[in-house]
Design goal:
Helix content: over 70%
Shape: elongated
Radius of gyration: 28 Å
Oligomer: single chain
Length: about 190
């Protein structure tokens, strides 16, 4: 019986939180926001501390998360997740972002070969590079237009296969096969003896 009452109370609390989110989204209700803040802020801080945040980081992240709740309450959909799940997902993502930003950078050493200026290109290397570039340009010029535009989107614009499919309104499989065919043709033209 006690478990059933706890489940009902939990369901009522979830419904109340969803109503608060809707009030924030529709009316920018400060009362609804205060209610969510009072409930979630201490729980978020505890959660972030368990994830390894310092006390100061946890407090800052709680503030960021709750500002996100205020600004983006309209994005919440009660059919997708509970308010609790939505807010804690935002908190987890903010913690991950913080870790990425504050990841320690490796110490740079002055004699690291990667930091030294590139050696001057030798004449034979320059000629070889120039010939290779010309071969690639010629190979690209021989590609069918339908393959060339997809290659350009992938390498010049940096689009993923799915982004290319969306941009050109093509099935993903078609994009992948055209790019694969283009690579095959380029490889063939580069391997042909002059």
């Amino acid at each position: 019986m006690t478990q059933a009452l706890a489940h009902l109370a939990d369901g009522a609390l979830r419904a109340r939180h969803a109503e608060c989110m809707e009030a924030i989204a529709q009316n920018q209700s400060r009362e609804a926001f205060a209610e969510l803040f009072d409930f979630f802020a201490p729980r978020l801080k505890s959660f972030l501390l368990r994830l390894g945040a310092t006390d100061g980081e946890a407090e800052d992240l709680v503030q960021e998360v709750m500002v996100t709740v205020w600004k983006k309450a309209g994005l919440y959909d009660r059919r997708q997740a509970s308010v609790s799940t939505w807010i804690f997902r935002v908190a987890r993502n903010r913690r991950i972002d913080l870790q990425r930003r504050s990841a320690s950078r490796p110490e740079l050493e002055a004699d690291d070969p990667m930091l030294l200026p590139q050696a001057e290109e030798q004449p034979d290397e320059r000629v070889e590079r120039s010939q290779m570039e010309e071969s690639v340009r010629a190979g690209l010029a021989r590609l069918p237009e339908e393959q060339l535009v997809l290659l350009q989107a992938a390498f010049y614009e940096g689009l993923s296969h799915s982004e290319i499919a969306e941009k050109f309104n093509l099935p993903l499989g078609t994009v992948k096969s055209r790019i694969r065919l283009a690579f095959g043709r380029l490889r063939g033209s580069l391997e042909e003896p002059d």
